[in-house]
Amino acid sequence: MNLTEKIGTKEKPLTLKTPPLSSEYTMHIDDKDGMQILVCTVGSTVLHYDARCLNDLHQMLIKHGEWMELGSKDEKQETNEGTVEHWGRSIDNPVKGWYGLKKNFRGRFGMYIPPLMEALGLADVTHEKRGNKMKALGK
Q1: How far apart are alpha carbons 110 and 130 in whole angstroms?
Q2: What's the pTM?
Q3: Which of 25, 66, 118, 132 could covalently link to 19 via disulfide, CB atoms 3.0 to 4.6 Å apart?
């Protein structure tokens, strides 16, 4: 998958909405220190995620086989095991820790990555006010 074509560039980012459909944010792909990163801009806040999370999360969700709670939390908050947010910072994931790359802004993986995966056709995401979930599409 050519991520730049699907996700966009700094000049032309992809506009997404959070799972509850309450806030807009943008996402684009960039290179930093020789690796592809996802740049998520929420108002004036900029978060960076390792772009490998898209494939890794998709593969994990395929193995999981059913809906998984998103469980979005800020970096300093404890996560609930069995949620997408917990997996996105767990030593048990393929990168052995955080997919978020900016210190103090590494959380909210479960808020901003699932809508991107839905836009890319990799997952279904629920859009309730609270307690949203996702599951993998495809194989």
Answers
A1: 12
A2: 0.95
A3: 132
H-run or E-run covering 57: helix 53-64
- Long-range contacts of residues 120-127, Cβ cutoff 8 Å, at least 24 apart: 120/1, 120/6, 120/7, 120/54, 122/54, 122/58, 123/58, 123/61, 125/19, 125/70, 126/19, 126/67, 127/19, 127/20, 127/21
Q: Mutual orientation of helices 53-64 and 109-119 as an angle, nearest 10°? A: 90
